[in-house]
Amino acid sequence: MSWLSEPKKGAARRSGIITVLDVGSSKVCCIIARLMPAEEGRALRHRTHRVKVIGIGHQQSQGMKSGVIVDLDRAEEAIRLAVDAAERMAGLTVDSLIVNVSAGRLRSETISASINLGGHEVAQSDINRVLAAGARQGLETEREVVHSLATGFSLDAERGIRDPRGMVGSELGVDMHILTADAAPLRNLELCINRSHLSVERMVATPYASGLAALVDDEAQMGAACIDMGGGTTTISVFAEGKFVWADALPVGGNHVTMDLVRGLSARLEDAERLKVMHGSALISSSDDRDIVSIHPMGADPGEQPIQVPRAVMTRIIRARIEETLEMVRDKLNRSGYGGLVGRRVVLTGGASQLVGLPEATRRLFGRNVRLGRPLGVAGLPEAAKGAAFSASVGLLIYPQVAEFENRGRSGKSGIFTRATGTGGRFQRVSQWLRSNF
Q: pLDDT tens for residues 263-277?
């Protein structure tokens, strides 16, 4: 990822190939894209490159539950198949990739740090030092720093500085958003990817990636919340003044709605999912009592007649779970202290957000303006991948362009972020290949 760093004055931005992997509870998606320097005056705010998708592969997720790997072999197989499909389409071989993470009890903290400058101009090395000083404060036993993002710099008594490089002062300070997660789920995810003979270039929190893809510039600048409702998790991110300032996650998603229908209607799993997608709604309408849906009971004989059930029964089951999930999101947002900063802007995205009536239900419960967000600013996506379910995947493609002031080393990881799993790196993967083949 280091090839995308801000170039020196007079140097041209470089093109390059980037590979991302979205490992979710419902699907595993691998996208290979070419990033090309944007023409002057035509780049979106904070976007230095144009993104052109050249390969994509996705599979139904296996061995995952609420964002956590529960079966290493099945998860590895799904990842291998998704990456292989993307490689075949792009006509190249993947070595390393950027992957998302939503498990591990994500937790946001705001931390301040400062270093002494001695009166000289602020250089990039000084920024790296102050970011590293702040990131160290976020380290805890059995937890790992996922993101260490500068939200604002200060120089002596002056605060609110966006880019201090080249300025003169005695003390450089930084306010940082530190996002941490439990180490074990992250290690298992990296282990699974390493077993597929791939290395992890960087882990990116799902709520951050979704917000990058689904929020427009004005929303991120004025303050907005992005709620990504996936199959097994619901993540929340808050952006203000163009910065990612807070995130959290819930182990509840669209799969829980499906399971409620299975239990409440005694339906088969595949039938419950079909009913949810085709006839499900988060709002009760006047016609629900008259509309009838056919359900094949669990364990019924092939020739047995389906049961006729009013759609109102199904809607009440869905509505109860959706309202419970939204209330949990609302409470977390209010307790975070950023509820007022969000104002009246909420964006829903993720596969489960496509449920009929969900924006209206959210609008009623939150008392805010709500819209359905889809991934923006990427060319070459197939029609099936332009929906809200692929926001996190597209956000991973955007991430390297906006992570200028994130503490990272030459290879995309600084010492703070290096994972002590014993599973990463080229030499480890070569040794695994030798053991498995000889």
A: 999 999 999 999 999
